[in-house]
Amino acid sequence: MKEWTHAEHAAAAAAEIARMADVLRGRDMSVPVLTCPGWDLARLAAHTGGVHRWAVAMVRDLTERRYDRDGMDMGLPADPGGYPAWLGEGAGFLPEALLSRDPQAPMWSWGGERRVGFWSRRMLHETVVHRVDAELALGVPVTIDEHVAADGVEEFLDILPYVRWNPDVAELRGGGETISLQADTGAGWVITLDPDRFHHRRSLQPGTVTVLAATSADLLQVVWGRRSPDDYAIEGDGGLLGWWRGLARI
Fold this sequence. Notes:
single chain; alpha+beta; Four Helix Bundle (Hemerythrin (Met), subunit A); Nonspecific Lipid-transfer Protein, Chain A; 2 domains; five-stranded mixed β-sheet; two-stranded antiparallel ribbon; 8 helices; Maleylpyruvate isomerase family mycothiol-dependent enzyme; MDMPI_C-term_domain
């Protein structure tokens, strides 16, 4: 698997922002987004562009505390038809802000890494997943670069223990059972449920239950709940997989 740098994450995030803006441009922004219940394309765009601006403000200030995103003026256009262009602006200012700071510089984050580098990776995958949401809502083909998708699966597993707003995550424990996520492209992870926590590692080994998919892009959509693992081959204890997916939500 590719080992990413801060600059590569920032550049990939910019490319994904531009791509999402292109997907949305000229579309009916009232189209429902079924993978984000209760949202339409306008709210999806407003959320994603707002998160970019929130992250930029915190990175520029190297803040030691969380900024109140709801209290920030995001400069959202009055007409939802302008949301795609507004979203696309992030392809310029987001990497500029990220690259203006040392990736090791300490700052607030909600994940395990309290440094700037957390945000370049997080903004990449925040955008990828919501770009997929838009494409699924519009019924257009979903494609994700394999290196981006593999890093996205691993990022999901890295940050999941820190999702304090979902108390169900604390229940992801067990007696050594394993959940294996495998792609035909050669990427694979095994999640182990210990009595006090879960942990993951890169591995091509099968598990108590194993999901076998063609690509890391498939697995990324599975872990983020954008596709059902039933779309792929499942070997072993399907009940364990269902239990995991019911609790492992960000």
